[in-house]
Design brief:
With 257 residues, the protein is α/β, with parallel strands linked by helices. It contains five helices and 16 strands. It is 19% helix and 27% strand. The mean pLDDT is 93.
């Protein structure tokens, strides 16, 4: 498997489409604050030496800034997903045009349903959440598609939350961050499991970039624990992301790491 310069793909939120999306109606999303937080997110990516391409907003698609949902990028192959939300599938053509073309591309087709946030890649193993966002056909199609490239797929039951990445993300080779109460980890073997201190939604979601971890400032005790383990913690305020159901990893696709 190859490695190269670390790159990322992001998309600015479409502010005019945000009113009421995934928000508590008593506390609507602050669109300007969301944009400020997205700018800071991109700045932190770049501070970690990540060459970051920021796409223009996609009008009519308020969740399109959550680019992670649309594609899984491995060193040898890109997999375009098929989100359960029908309205989000029209985002895929624009994402495909924006991704680098130096690797093969697979497209999931009906009846497969799979969300990029349900995939945690650990070297040659892809852990895939069995959640409301990914069906068995999606899991099977992914497994068949990546087999030729040397990857195996293992299902992880999501017991709480909407997708795997809220409760399990990669820290580095052989180590993951998890909130165990939210998952059935019986098939997760051969990796060290670091448990979150906070047990809330999204506490186990961090973006690993070499020695750096981009983390939400909503989980200070978990971030402190990770710092003691030797990681360089880059905290960002993502309150408006969270109010839309978005985590740290949702807003980027890492192309090489």
């Amino acid at each position: 498997m190859r490695t190269g310069e670390m790159r990322a793909l992001c998309r600015r939120p479409a502010l005019e489409d945000l009113q009421g999306v995934r928000a508590d109606p008593r506390r609507p999303v602050d669109a300007e604050r969301l944009l400020d937080q997205h700018r800071e997110y991109v700045r932190v990516l770049r501070s970690a030496c990540v060459d970051t391409c920021v796409l223009d907003p996609l009008p009519g698609h308020p969740e399109a800034f959550r680019v992670q949902d649309t594609a899984i990028v491995l060193p040898e192959v890109t997999i375009l997903t098929r989100p359960r939300a029908v309205g989000r599938r029209s985002e895929l053509a624009d994402i495909e045009r924006s991704l680098v073309s130096d690797r093969a591309c697979l497209r999931l087709e009906a009846p497969a349903i799979l969300d990029g946030g349900d995939v945690c890649a650990m070297d040659e193993v892809l852990y895939v959440g069995q959640s409301g966002r990914t069906n068995h056909a999606g899991l099977k199609a992914l497994a068949l598609g990546v087999l030729a490239y040397g990857y195996v797929v293992k299902a992880v039951e999501v017991r709480a939350g909407s997708c795997l990445c809220e409760s399990m993300t990669r820290l580095d080779r052989g180590r993951i961050l998890v909130t165990p109460a939210n998952l059935d980890l019986g098939r997760v073997k051969g990796v060290e499991q670091v448990e979150t201190v906070e047990q809330g939604w999204g506490a186990a979601n961090v973006l690993a970039l070499g020695k750096h971890l981009i983390c939400s400032d909503a989980y200070p005790r978990t971030n402190e624990h990770l710092s003691r383990l030797g990681y360089d913690i880059l905290e960002v305020g993502l309150s408006e992301f969270h109010r839309m159901g978005a985590t740290v990893t949702c807003a980027s696709i890492i192309l090489d790491a």
